[in-house]
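Researcher: Please translate sequence to structure tokens.
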Amino acid sequence: MGALLIVEQILNGLQLGVTLFLMAAGLTLIFGIMNMINLAHGSLFTIGAYLLVTFQKLTGSFVLGLALAVPAAALFGVLLEVVLVRKLYTRDHLDQSLATIGLILLFNEGVRFLWGKFPLGVTLPDVLAGSVEIVPGSAYPAFRLLVIAIGIAVAVGLWLLVAKTRIGMLVRAGASDREMTQMLGINVKRLYTIVFALGTALAGLAGAMAAPIVGVQSGMGDGVLILTLVVIVIGGTGSIRGAFIAALVVGLFDTFGRVLLPAAVASMAIYLLMAAVLVWRPEGLFGVRA
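Model: Translation complete:
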């Protein structure tokens, strides 16, 4: 493998990795704080992509469309949590899994009803549609570099939010001991709504950023959800740091595996990686030991 190809695959792996991180960060917080299994998280990825398409058509601008799609996804998350999800917090994991599988079917059919059955495209502005020469003789798509930059910026922002702010303190407290947090007078119901809205916004951002690369269609988040769950298992539930490191590892591992390994082996590579991590650390790389 030549040096230029290695650089390109590293960047492809980073781009996939930060996309998975945007998904995993919200989902691992939701599970870590609420003990809530949300298998419909991939549908929120899809909705973010369709919101971008809608707002880009309304405004005629990709940037404005993206700027509107993310808060719209967060608002959708608030409505979803208030109307339905909060009723599942006291149910067991089987009920949560079945209910959110039902949401997947509902969302997929709803997307087909609202936007049609055929895939939709996203038009990038000229400055993002071209390529950037990262090393002499090797150009890389500018938009993919933007995805990497946004993913890293969001990771830093989340770390600052969780580690340095009052909301982050409450999030960490809720993840450590929900009952004690509530006894101290914290409005846990509102905290849950904020966390779910944040997770939905991150999933929506991931879907919007993936839309110009993979196209927009119903069910586009289902495959991403599987990779996201692998990331959470490897990184450890409830850990933002674990989600970030595991997402980059999975992104690079999957990208290089598809280049270097036979197709049949490459499709299993990340699952073999997950199994190896679980044998070594059943709680994940940064999970808390029981």
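Researcher: Any highlights?
Model: The beta strands are 131-135, 138-141.
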